[in-house]
Design goal:
Blueprint: H1 10-19, H2 29-45, H3 49-76, H4 86-105, H5 109-127, H6 132-147, H7 151-172, H8 181-201, H9 211-228, H10 232-235, E1 238-242, H11 249-268, E2 273-282, E3 291-299, E4 321-325, H12 328-341, E5 346-351, E6 359-366, H13 367-373, E7 379-380
Helix pairs in contact: 1-5, 2-3, 2-4, 3-4, 4-5, 5-6, 6-7, 7-8, 7-9, 8-9, 11-12
Length: 387
């Protein structure tokens, strides 16, 4: 049997899957690969796993040779360049998945899990995360990994699925361009690998955090990276602050109040609130928050919506009002309060990564966009310290 330990060359097929455009013409290799696949499946269904493994190896050897010839024709500038079509790319995924199941029967579990993951990546790049082939393959991978207590493989596929679901939600909500799919797909896979590496090396997260809570933190980080790495117009609607553990929010506000307000104004696109000053207030010792920041701001520009546009020349506009804050959510609430009074159809939502996150992330979006994102990206309307 040929060596099964190195399938790095299939990464080239993954790149081809990203570049695939519907309507491309196919090639004759696909039929040959199909024939190999059917023959191998028949053998494995009869329990002849060794024989099936040999056929799978032959099929993948043919696929590798075809890929080398394709790459060679491209580099030499040949007139008749070979083209990979979706059927061939999909058949490569079928071969990876089928061979993986055979290897599992032959006790090559880790190779089987790696091949299944390659198959899932190919299926996802071709058909999207909601495709039945992706979900079936992922289900089998989790089942196999759990039976051999290979929990890092379970963590990898669960995060991979959630991250792609977040990507799909951001695309549907128009925070990403459809044309950015290849770039985002690669980014999600890189973030998945980095996440698993952190888990494998010992996570720095608190021991009392559940797996779901850690995933929420990582998914929010993933969403932030996706938005930042694509359309600048979408990135402008994102507000991110570090989650400072060593300094109280009130102290931070005292030194950088104007900067924080400016970031929210930037996302809105107008200076709807103007910072005046910040005062530190002390509450009773038994209060959940013993120190708060009292922010004094005045009304800025209107959004030209409804009755909100009528207060432009009102003298009250110049009078600062007081808002009590103990965390970034409260500052966000200050802006949502102002947006509500201006009858805006948009507000800030928190990308909800819990209390142990390294960032505070807020997204300025409409209720329709929020509906597209809820369920794919952890998010909520920030709790207000005061109404």
């Amino acid at each position: 049997m040929s060596d099964t330990s190195n399938f790095d060359w299939i990464e080239q097929y993954l790149k081809q899957a990203l570049l695939y455009k519907r309507g491309q013409s196919g090639n004759t290799v696909t039929l040959q690969l199909h024939a190999f696949l059917l023959r191998a499946l028949d053998l494995s269904n009869d329990g002849r796993y060794e024989a099936a493994a040999i056929v799978f190896c032959e099929a993948l050897a043919l696929a590798r040779l075809n890929l080398s010839e394709l790459e060679g024709s491209k580099s030499s500038g040949a007139a008749n360049k070979g083209v990979l079509d979706v059927e061939e790319l999909s058949t490569i995924a079928d071969l990876c998945f089928g061979y993986a199941r055979v290897l599992a029967e032959l006790n090559g579990v880790h190779q089987a899990l790696d091949l299944m993951y390659l198959a899932i990546r190919l299926y996802t790049r071709l058909y999207g995360i909601a495709d039945g082939r992706v979900l079936f393959c992922a289900s089998r991978l989790k089942e196999l990994a759990l039976s051999f207590q290979a929990y890092i493989y379970v963590a990898r596929i669960l995060f991979f699925l959630r991250a792609h679901k977040a990507l799909a939600g951001l695309l549907q909500a128009k925070f990403l361009f459809e044309s950015s799919w290849p770039e985002c797909c690669v980014l999600v896979e890189n973030l998945t690998s980095a996440y698993c590496l952190r888990l494998d090396n010992g996570s720095s997260y608190s021991a009392d955090l559940s797996t779901e809570e850690i995933e929420d933190i990582e998914i929010v980080n993933c969403a932030v990276e996706l938005i930042r790495s694509t359309a600048s117009s979408s990135a402008a609607r994102l507000v991110v602050f570090p989650a400072y553990d060593s300094q109280s929010f009130s102290a931070l506000c005292h030194t950088n109040f104007s900067g924080y307000v400016a970031e929210f104004n930037r996302a809105v696109g107008k200076e709807i609130l103007i910072p005046v000053r910040c005062e530190i207030g002390y509450l009773p010792e038994d209060s959940p928050q013993s120190i708060v920041a009292y922010l004094f701001v005045q009304k800025g520009q209107t959004l030209g919506l409804g009755k909100g546009s009528m207060v432009v020349n009102s003298p009250e506009r110049k009078l600062p009002f007081k808002w009590k804050c103990s965390e970034f959510d409260d500052l966000c609430g200050l802006f949502n309060s102002r947006l509500r009074k201006l009858r805006s159809g948009e507000r800030f939502y928190r990308l909800d990564n819990g209390r142990s996150a390294v960032i505070n992330a807020y997204l300025y979006c409409s209720s329709a966009q929020a509906s597209d994102l809820i369920g794919s990206v952890p998010m909520r309307t920030p709790r207000l310290f005061q109404a």
